[in-house]
Amino acid sequence: MPELPVAWKPQAENVVFGKEVSRIDGVDKATGFAKYSADINTPGTLHGKLLQSPYAHARIKAIDVEAARKVPGVKAVYVFPDRAPRTNEETGEPIYFEIEHEGQPIAAVAAETSGQADDGLRAIKVVYEPLEFFVDEFHLPRAVELGRARPIRAAQQGDLEGAFKAAAHTITGMYGIQTISHMCLEPHGSHCEFTDGDHLTAHLSTQNVSGTPGQFASPLGLDAAKVHVSCDYMGGGFGSKFAADEWDIACAAMARDAQRPVKLMLDRATELNIPGSRPSAFAEITVAADADGKLVAWDSHHWGTSGPQGGTVAPTVMPYVFEPKNRRTRATGIVTNRGPDRAWRAPNHPQACALTQTAIDDLAAAIGVDPYDLFLKNLDLTWSATSRNPADKDIYAAELEIAAKLMDWKAKWHPRGEAGDGPVKTGLGLALHTWGGAAGRGTCTVAIHPDGTVETFSGTQDLGTGTRTALAVILAESFGLPYEKIKVHIGSSKYPMSGPSGGSTTIGGVSGPHRRAALKALGRIYDLVAAKHSVDAGTLTAANEQILSAGKPVCTWAEACSLLGPMKVEFQGEGPANDGLTSAQVGGVQMAEVAVDVETGVTKVVRYVAVQDIGTIVCREQAKSQVLGAMIMTIAYALSEERIMDNATGRFVNADLQHYKLPRIGDIGELIVEFYEPESQYKKGVIGLGEPPVISGGAAISNAVANAVGQRIPVLPLTPKRILDSLRS
Amino acid sequence: MRDFEYESPTTLPEALAILATGPGCRPLAGGTDLIDHVRVGRLAPDVLVDVKKLPELNILEAGPKGLRIGAATPCFRIVAHEAIQRDYAALADSAHIIGGIQIQNRATFGGNVCTSGPAADSIPSLIALSAACVIAGPQGTRRVPIEQFCTGPGKNVLQPGELLVEFELPAPGPHSGSHYRRFIPRNEMDIAVVGVGAAVTLDAGGQTITAARIALGAVAPTPLLAEQAAQAVIGQPVGESTFQAAGRAAREIISPITDMRGTAEFRTHVTGVLVERVLQAAVSRARGGRS
Ligand SMILES: Cc1cc2nc3c(=O)[nH]c(=O)nc-3n(C[C@H](O)[C@H](O)[C@H](O)COP(=O)(O)OP(=O)(O)OC[C@H]3O[C@@H](n4cnc5c(N)ncnc54)[C@H](O)[C@@H]3O)c2cc1C
Known about the structure:
By secondary structure, chain A is of the alpha+beta class. Chain A contains 19 helices and 31 strands. Chain A folds into 3 domains: about 160 residues, Aldehyde Oxidoreductase, domain 4, CATH 3.30.365; about 170 residues, Aldehyde oxidase/xanthine dehydrogenase, a/b hammerhead (Aldehyde Oxidoreductase, domain 3), CATH 3.90.1170.50; about 220 residues, Aldehyde Oxidoreductase, domain 4, CATH 3.30.365.10. In chain A, α9 packs parallel to α18, α13 runs parallel beside α14 and α16 packs across α18. The longest helix of chain A has 28 residues. The relative contact order of chain A is 0.13. By secondary structure, chain B is an alpha+beta fold. Chain B has 2 domains: about 110 residues, Uridine Diphospho-n-acetylenolpyruvylglucosamine Reductase, domain 3 (2-Layer Sandwich); about 110 residues, CO dehydrogenase flavoprotein, C-terminal domain (Enolase-like, domain 1). In chain B, β8 and β9 form a beta hairpin. The longest helix of chain B is centred in the last third of the chain and has 24 residues. Chains A and B meet through α19 of A and α11 of B. The complex binds flavin-adenine dinucleotide (FAD).
C-alpha cells in the first residue's frame, strides 16, 4: 500500500493521546528508584568541591596548590584554565586572571571524604588584588558616571512627537523587575568516571544530552566518540543547563588524574549564584491613547544587567505584544560584577511583559476604564513571537472571555483603589503573552519485536516535563497499545541525536519523529497483515492491541508483529518536518486576584487563572503541570523571589534558601488552568508550552495589586517592604 | 561536617556529670538548630549529650498551680495538649509555627530558648505567660525569669555545665487569653521579622483589661518584655484606641536592625500593627472563655 498519510489520528478516535494519563515514571520518582546525577555513587567515588572567589572583582596574583595535594585524602587538584598567572611571551609582562564576580571558580579538589575536600580547599593559597566592583543594577546615572553603562540601543518608528501631542491620555511611569536565579532543585553538576583508560562516562544534569559529549571532549583532548553523557532524570534546568560547564570539565579532569570516579555537584549557595540568572530590567515609560482608548504612542528607555557581559532585555520585545504605531524604544545594558545570566524560561519575555503591560494598565486606570476593555480594544496592535504578523487577535479575544468567566471578572472588578475600608484590599489584574514553541531537531529509533513489544531510543532528555510519558503515549496511540507497555529509552548520548530542550522545542522535536517512525512501522505491518489475511491494507487500523479491518478484528498486535520475521525491526524517525504534525505560535491570557494587607504589606494570590492555546495536546495532565509550575514560578518572582546584591561588598547576600524567598505552598492560592482548544487548535499540530505560561503573570499580579491598593508598586517582586514604602511615601 | 561523639544518658545526674567534663560537651535536644550549626561550622562540639531520654526534661503537666514543660518536650506535644490550647494558647500558637511538621516532631522549646535567637518563636509567648526557667548545674538548681534568660543574640545566662530542665508557668486567672503571631513575608516556614506575644486578663464583664504582659521578638538583641506597652492597656477599656496606644508604646521601646529581612523602619511599623492585632486576638480568647 502507499505510505500512510502523515497526520495525527482524528481527534475523536484518540484513546490516550491528549488524555489525562499518569506519568510512566511517577512511581520511580516518588520512590527514589529514579536516579539523578547526584544519586550516582559508583564504588570509589571521590567528593569534588570548588574553591571560589570571595571577591566580586579582583586579579589573581598567585595560586599555590602544592599544600592541597599533600592533604590526607586529597586525590586530585585542578586549577581552572588561565587562573594561574602567566607571562606574555612577546612582552614578558605578567598576565593576571580577572575575577568578574563573587563565586567564580578558581580551583577544585577531589578527596575521599567531603571533609577532606574542604581541608584541601583550605590548603590552597590564592593571592588576590581586589579591584573596584559594581553590583548596583538599578541606579542608571551611577552606572553611566562610572563608565559601566553600555551605549544606548535605540529604535524608532512613526511620528512620536505628533502622536503624543495629539493623544487624549498620556501616562509616564517607572517600572522594574529584579534579577532572579534559576534555582534548579537539582543543582548543576556531574559524576564523571573513566573506564578503559580514556573512555569518559559523565552523568551530567543537562538539558542537552546529545550536544554535550563534544563539550567534554575538546577541553580534555578526548575523542568525542569516547564520551558518553547520561542523564536519566534531571531536576530542572529552565535554560541554565545546556553546557558541560567548566566545573564539569574540572570534575572529569580530576577523575582522569585520580583514576577514580568523581562527583561534583554545586552546593546550594553556588547553585543560586553562578550557573545562571535572569537579568533585571527597569524602565521609564510614556504611553498614550486617543480618546477611544486606542494606544497611539509609546516611548521607553529600559536598562538592567546580565552581569559581567553587560546585557539587558532585548529591545526587540519592547513594547511587549502591544505595539502602537508611533514608538521609540531605548535600551542600556549595565556591566556589573554579578553572577552571569543564562536563558531563563522564555528569555526576555517575562521582563518585557512586566514593564509593558503594567504601563498599559496604568494608562487604563488614568483613563478610568476597565483594563479588560482597553486590552480588548487594542488587540489589533498585537504581534506574535514568531512572525511579527498581526497575531490572531480573535484567539486573544476568546481567551480573554474564557479567563474573565473563570475569574468572574466583570462582577468582581472595581476601579483602581476602590477596594473598601478594611486593611485587606482585593484587586484584579490581567496580562497576555506570546511564544513560538516550534519543534526542535530530533531523531529516534523505534524498534518492534516479533513478540509485539515496542521500544524507542532517543537522545532527548526529560527535564521533569514528562517527555518519557509523551513518547509512550504517541507510540501507544499509534499502535493501539496500552501506554505503560511502551519501553522508552532516553537520556543517553548513545541514542539517536535529539536537540537540546530549550525554547519550548522539545515536545514538537520528539513527537514528530516518533509519529513518523510509528507510521512507517504501521505501514509495514499493515502490508504484512493484508497479505496474510487477504484484506485491503487501506482498511486497517490498530486499536485495543488488535489490527482491525473496517473496524473488525483481523489479528492481535502480537500476531501481526510476528509477521515481521525472527528479528526486531527498527524504524527511524526524523524531524522537524513541514508535514503538519508540529507547528508554532501560541499565546495566552492570565488573570490574578490578590488580597493585600495594607498595614503589613503582605500580598496573597487568592485566585490565578491561566488560559493558554497550545495546538495539539499530547499529554493533557503533563501540559497542565507545565502551566501550574509556571504559575508557581511566576508567583515567586512576582511576590518574593529576588537576588539581593550588597553594594558594599559586591556579594550576593541571600544565596541560601532561608533568605532567597521562594513561596511556600500556603502562598500559592487557587490556580486554574484552562486550555483554549477549539477543533482548529487540534488541527494546528504539536507546539511547545514550557515557556509561555511563565510570561504574563508578573504583570497580571502587579496590575491586581495596583487595582487593590490604588497605586502602582513599580518594582517586582512586590515584597511587603516595597508595598509599604510605596504606600507610605 | 566535623565528627563528634554521642552520649545518651538516662538520668539527670548522669547528664550533668558528663556536661561537667568540659566545654566540648553540648546538650542535644531535637538537633534542628544544633546539627545545622555544626554543619556550617558555627559550633564545633566534641561530645553531644542527648537530653531527650531524661524524664525531668520530658514533663508536660498542667494543674491548679500552673504548667510545667520539660525542656526536651517536642513542639508537636505542645500543640496537641488540651490544657495548653485552652489556658496557654500562645504556646500552642508558637509551637504550631516553628518550622513544619517534620521540624515540630523534633524541635523543642528548650532548644529554641537555648539557641537564644532574637527571632525565636517560643520566647515571646513564654514571656507573655510569665514562664520561669529551671536550670540545673554543678552548683544545684536555680530559677531565672524567661525575660532575663537571653543576654544577646545567641547568648544566655547558662553557665558551663548547666542544663535547662523545664519551664514553670503560673496558672492564668479567669477571663484570661493569650496569643502569639509573627510577621513573615511568606505564609509558612520562615524566620520572624517581628514576633509578638501577649497575655491579657479582663474584668468579669470582659470590658476592661486588668492585667497584661506583652513581649516582642526580632526587634532587639533579645526578645523583650514590653512593660510600657502593657502599662498602656492595663486598666483601660477594651477597644481599638487602647490597642493603638499599646502599639505606639511598643514602637517606642524597640531597637530593630536593618537587614535583608526588613529595615528598622519597616520592623518598627509592623511591630505596632502586630501588637494591635495580637491584643485583639488575646482579648477575644479571654472573652470566649478559651483563654
Ligand atoms: C527548617 C527549619 C525551620 C525552622 N523554623 C523555625 C521557626 O519557624 N521558628 C523558630 O523559632 N525556629 C525555627 N527553627 C529553628 C529550630 O528548629 C528551633 O529553634 C528549635 O526549637 C530548636 O530546638 P531543638 O530541640 O532542635 O534544639 P537543638 O538543635 O537540639 O539545640 C539547640 C541549642 O540549644 C542547646 N540546648 C538544647 N537543649 C538544651 C538544654 N536542655 N539545656 C541547655 N542547652 C540546650 C543545644 O546545645 C543547642 O546549642 C527552624 C529550623 C529548621 C531546620
